[in-house]
Write a structure and sequence with these properties.
alpha/beta
Length: 255
């Protein structure tokens, strides 16, 4: 893809799943990648994958819900790489067991999920955009959204759906605010994606069939399929896109 080789990219939640696949794809495209995750071992595994493929990457343990941790992570990126061109704000958590309907949802669960998925996005974007402006001057931000922030496709997951709806709103305001500065902001909206944790949950073929019954393509996505969309939005091939939502959901939101 055009305009990625030689760029410096930071990916949050890159120790596994979609974030890991996105970090590895950006590495393949020639970016130097800062791999940010609260799970340092997972971040190091991603770095190993990138370097084994001939790329360059660093691992930084980062708790996106803690501003001091986020600020320190971006300072380390500048120290190691000199600038930042691309931010992929992806870190998020989901708990089908603890999330609930609004009248039964415990506030501490709400605080935990929203604290990572929405406040964590805000903090990552706050310090990521500041770093892009202070170093590269212009660049690209890609946020990970969800169909759950647009429809009731995941009942009894009030905290998760609300957090992702907030991410979608955050992205649109950011896109308008920073377009004059040459910083594009877009959202990739993954559907049902077969991350390692999800694969465990749907190991029973009957559970898997139930999960994909309403997806027109009748299968889950591989993380690498989402990563391709992330790389596109970050690249110069998407140079006239900002404030956009790219759905990679097998047709789920077309229903």
């Amino acid at each position: 893809m055009r305009g990625l080789k030689g760029k410096i990219a930071a990916v949050t939640g890159a120790g596994s799943g979609i974030g890991q696949a996105a970090a590895e794809r950006l590495g393949e495209e020639g970016c130097k990648v800062a791999v940010l995750d609260i799970n340092e071992a997972g971040a190091r595994t991603t770095v190993d994958h990138i370097t084994a493929a001939g790329g360059e990457a660093i691992a930084i343990r980062t708790d996106v819900s803690d501003e001091a941790s986020v600020e320190a992570a971006f300072a380390e990126i500048v120290r190691r790489f000199g600038r930042l061109d691309i931010l992929v704000s992806n870190a998020g958590i989901f708990s089908g067991e603890r999330d609930d309907k609004v009248d039964d949802l415990r506030k501490e669960i709400w605080d935990e999920i929203v604290g990572v998925n929405l406040t964590g996005m805000y903090l990552s974007c706050k310090h990521g955009v500041r770093t892009i402006k202070a170093t590269a001057g212009k660049g690209s931000v890609v946020l990970t959204g969800s169909p759950t922030g647009m429809s009731g496709c995941t009942p009894a997951n009030v905290a998760y759906g609300s957090s992702k709806g907030g991410v979608h709103g955050l992205s649109r305001i950011m896109a308008v605010d920073h377009a004059p500065e040459g910083i594009r902001v877009n959202v990739v909206v993954p559907g049902f994606t077969l991350t390692p944790i999800v694969r465990e949950l749907v190991a029973d073929p009957k559970v898997y069939e139930w999960q994909i019954q309403n997806i027109p393509l009748k299968r889950g996505a591989e993380p690498e399929e989402i990563a391709g969309a992330v790389a596109f939005l970050a690249s110069d091939d998407a140079s006239y896109m900002t404030g956009s939502f790219m759905f990679v959901d097998g047709g789920l939101t077309a229903i």
